[in-house]
Amino acid sequence: MTAEAVVPNTVTYNSAIAACSKCGQWQVALSLLQTMSAPDVISCSSAITACEKAGHWQVALSLLHQMPAMGVAPSQISYNAAISACGKGAQWQLALDLLFTMPRLGVSASQISFNAAMSACEKGGQWTWALALLGSMSDCVVTPDVVS
User: What is the C-alpha radius of gyration for the chain, rounded to an integer number of angstroms?
Assistant: First the structure.
């Protein structure tokens, strides 16, 4: 039996980045992302999630802002992961900035977006902002859930 080389493609890279995210290997996830010739929104969002889970909000935010230069438009999932990363880093103001930026860039906020931003406000002791977000969900045609 002869050994054949497996050439990694976007799907295999994305799977590896997601696996790194689940195992707390954010640096490996970033390294894999950097070796890709053409990362996609899944690649970048998975890497942002890896940084978020590891508590590296600055890296997550930087990666979100680098996506357009990579030819990748950030998605709702990309923003949700970055908002969550900001919340874990006690950066409630940055979380709100991201949430408020989404519609201007044509990315609709979801329940997850609002919940992550409200969680960031809660962690920052900003209960008035959290309540304001809860009240504004219906304006954005987003239905609050049990988490909200």
Answer: 17
Dihedral over Cα of 75, 79, 81, 82: its sign: positive
Alpha-carbon torsion, ordered 81, 87, 91, 93, to 10 deg: 80
Cα separation, 12 vs 144, whole angstroms: 36
The pLDDT tens digits for 109-118 are 999 999 999 9
Q: Are 147 and 134 in contact (CB under 8 A)?
A: no
Distance (Å, whole) CA 52 – CA 61: 9
Q: With contact defined as beta carbons under 8 Å apart, do 12 and 4 qualify? A: no
| Residue 64 near residue 48, CB atoms below 8 Å | yes
